[in-house]
Amino acid sequence: MKISVVIPTYLRPNDLARCLQALCNQTRLPDEVLVVIRDTDVETKTLLESFNLTPFPLQTIIVNVPGVVAAMNVGWDKTQGDIIVSTDDDAAPHSDWLAKIETYFLSDQQIAGVGGRDWQYQGSHLKEEGTPRTVGKVQWFGRVIGNHHLGTGKAREVDVLKGVNMGFRRAAIQGLHFDERMRGMGAQVNFEMAFALPLRRRGWKIIYDPSVAVDHYPAQRFDEDQIHRGQFSAIALSNIAHNETLALLEYLSPIQRIIFLIWAVVIGTRECPGLVQVLRFLPSRRFLIVRKWLATINGRWQGIQSWLHSERAAVVPPPGVFEHSNSA
Fold first, then answer.
1. Beta bridge partners of 206
2. Fewer CB within 10 Å: C terminus or N terminus of the chain?
3. Which intervals hold domain Glycosyltransferase 2-like (predicted)?
């Protein structure tokens, strides 16, 4: 079994150097590493030209389109591995990361995806602590629960993985690409959801194991999405709501779609509030919660429009309908 690792990056050469060093320290080395950079990113290109002593083939892929979706699609299309794994440039996988991922894929041919915890750090300290009971699930009415950075306990099946720590079986994703309808100029939040849910809909297993871990040092972003860096942006939040709405409308049943839209408008979440959340936080956040609500409603509406006016071309094969790889 061959493993390819793809790392999309933009203007973060120091973070990327730490990530590549972590891959060099793997107990199970990757069979190839592909770093996808923008054509304008001279700093990262310079770094990669000096990284010529890695214990694995290192390839630089150049794209001229902004956004993680374009980078991932180009990078994944050029891989040769039976398993394609991705992490972020500001992450450092633990030394047994690839070994554990490979073990899962060898153990069960119905597993399409494997991922785990990203231990988020702010400097040398954990950014957040907790022990959530639920990780990576889409509830029946459409609420999405992440918590990938806080998961503990045993491995379990999930609906969604996180881009900083995810790997997929090539045979399971034949014909499937990251959705180019995802909005945003950089992070394009929820692109992983749009990728994973079609696999779940067809019956593939997706595994989250907290011990399949990376250290994550959230770095500066160079786009409008600064929400997860502590800054509000109406455009970014609208994009988040659009992407989530589009992905869920394609995944949920007709009845669930109606329930989801009612829940999203009436209740919602802290990040993408509905009317109930507006009333809840109005005394303390005033104009900010109203701005978040307006951006969310705008994104939801645009997500509905995208769903109505487009159709995904990808056909995802069900488990078992593929040829077993003979790769060593």
1. 113
2. C
3. 4-141
What's the rounded Cα separation, in Å, for the pair 26 and 15? 17
What is the tens place of the pLDDT at every residue in 192-211? 999 999 999 999 999 999 99
pLDDT of residue 314: 45
Structure tokens at 214: 């990376």
- Other Cβ atoms closer than 10 A to 126: 12
Q: Where are the beta strands (DSSP E) in 142-204?
A: 144-145, 156-157, 165-169
Contact 86, 72 (CB under 8 A): yes
Q: Enumerate residues 6+ apart whose C-beta is below 8 A from 104.
A: 111, 114, 155, 207, 209, 212
What tokens does 75 get? 């990078």
How far apart, in whole angstroms, are the C-alpha atoms of residue 58 and residue 300? 40
Of 107, 75, 92, 94, the C-alpha closest to 5 is 75
Q: 109: buried, middle or exposed (CB in 10 Å: 19+, 13-18, 0-12)?
A: middle
Spell out the residues 6+ positions from residue 27 whose beta carbon is closer than 8 angstroms to its own: 95, 96, 98, 99
